[in-house]
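From the methods appendix. Each design record in this collection lists the tokenized structure first, followed by the designed amino acid sequence. Records were kept in a plain field format so they could be parsed without special tools. The example shown here is representative of the layout used throughout.

RECORD:
FOLD TOKENS (412 positions):
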């Protein structure tokens, strides 16, 4: 069986697919990934076939994360990426040709249309809820109510409108019927499209009303493997051995003037709080990144390694990063930027694994707000919730469950 994944996004979008591909390759299947050049080493390290997609990974981060404030910002970002690679559908067709299954995510739904043209089944991968449920929503801070369910209204039509603008000329040119507001991504060639949520059931409880083509599998990663390849610097080992740090702070790779100011604010809050911290923040000026008895500034470090060495964690709340923190049983403070980050911050708080998330969508936080959130984070009242989440997460095997579902789907 040949499976081709089309991944437009950040490392957080690509890494889970690479780990799924490793599992399927071990089962004797061929797994290929069409994505940005920046992720070629990651793909090839897993023994998978890399296919180049002509889009800059840094621009994806900038347009879809750093510049994200409203839904229209996201739409603008998608069209900026489309403009940078006018041949993206030709590249996609060439990449998926001969495949038995095409896998795509939120920002690569165009792969569905290429697969339709070639008559290839699809699987969707989402990191936040896209299938309507009353249990929770990306667009509501409530739970288990009609209000939550109503928050999904208009979502399919919104996605279809974007599709109409971006792809209807291509569809008609290639003999496919025009996409409409009532078209659906949930079916293809008379079958329900296989759908995956590579997150823990403690984060997204499966809705009993969903059909059996929708799977909440557990996370897709091999954290022990990433940790085994890492040799920490002697300075970091010395800092860790002098006493368990209170927190690890990570800001990811998104860059903007606003995020640079946020990193400076958080650094000041950490200093004033007196907490010992390991900090990964590329946009903090070099003059401020001086290691002391209280603070250690680090470059790239496997989260599966460092999360187990600290009392609690602070990050933007991406699905995989959030999962690694909870897998280690660490209370979590999310400072969310967009999309699934805000959702997982709310979920962490809902299950008692961390304070209410801090969002910067409507303006930067103050030093006092961050200090208050940090104090709450290490107060001890979230320890039990984080430990209970860790128990569930460590009992799941997401890549195995997803691979089983793929084999069953294709062989029907």
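DESIGN:
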């Amino acid at each position: 069986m040949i499976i081709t994944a089309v991944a437009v996004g950040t490392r957080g979008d690509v890494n889970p697919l690479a780990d799924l591909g490793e599992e399927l390759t071990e089962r004797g299947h061929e797994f290929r990934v069409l994505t940005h050049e920046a992720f070629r080493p990651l793909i090839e390290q897993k023994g998978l076939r890399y296919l180049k997609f002509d889009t800059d990974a840094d621009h994806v981060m900038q347009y879809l994360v750093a510049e994200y404030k409203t839904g229209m910002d996201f739409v603008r970002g998608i069209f900026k990426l489309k403009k940078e690679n006018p041949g993206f559908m030709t590249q996609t067709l060439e990449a998926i040709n001969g495949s038995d299954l095409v896998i795509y995510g939120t920002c690569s739904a165009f792969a569905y249309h290429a697969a339709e043209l070639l008559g290839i089944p699809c699987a969707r991968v989402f990191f936040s809820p896209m299938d309507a449920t009353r249990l929770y929503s990306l667009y509501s801070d409530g739970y288990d109510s009609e209000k939550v369910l109503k928050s999904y209204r208009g979502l399919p039509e919104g996605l279809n409108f974007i599709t109409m603008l971006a792809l209807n000329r291509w569809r008609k040119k290639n003999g496919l019927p025009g996409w409409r507001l009532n078209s659906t991504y949930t079916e293809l060639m008379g079958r329900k499209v296989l759908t995956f949520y590579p997150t823990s059931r403690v984060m997204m409880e499966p809705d009993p009303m969903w059909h059996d083509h929708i799977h909440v599998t557990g996370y897709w990663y091999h954290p022990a493997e990433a940790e085994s390849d890492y040799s920490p610097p002697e300075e970091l080992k010395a800092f860790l051995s002098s006493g368990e740090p209170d927190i690890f702070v990570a800001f990811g790779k998104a860059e903007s003037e606003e995020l640079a100011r946020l990193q400076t604010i958080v650094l000041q809050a950490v200093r004033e709080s007196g907490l010992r911290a390991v900090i990964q923040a590329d946009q903090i000026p070099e003059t401020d990144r001086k290691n002391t008895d209280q603070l250690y500034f680090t470059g790239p470090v496997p989260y599966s390694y460092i999360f187990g060495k600290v009392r609690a964690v602070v990050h933007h709340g991406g699905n995989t990063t959030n999962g690694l923190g909870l897998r280690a049983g660490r209370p979590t403070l999310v400072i969310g930027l967009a999309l699934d980050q805000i959702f997982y911050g709310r979920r962490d708080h809902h299950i008692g694994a961390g304070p209410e998330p801090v969002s910067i969508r409507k303006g930067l936080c103050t030093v006092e707000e961050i200090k208050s959130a940090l104090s709450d984070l290490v107060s001890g009242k979230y320890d039990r919730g984080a430990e209970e989440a860790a128990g569930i997460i460590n009992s799941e095997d997401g890549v195995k469950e997803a691979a089983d579902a793929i084999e069953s789907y294709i062989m029907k």
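APPENDIX NOTE: The chain has a mean pLDDT of 89.
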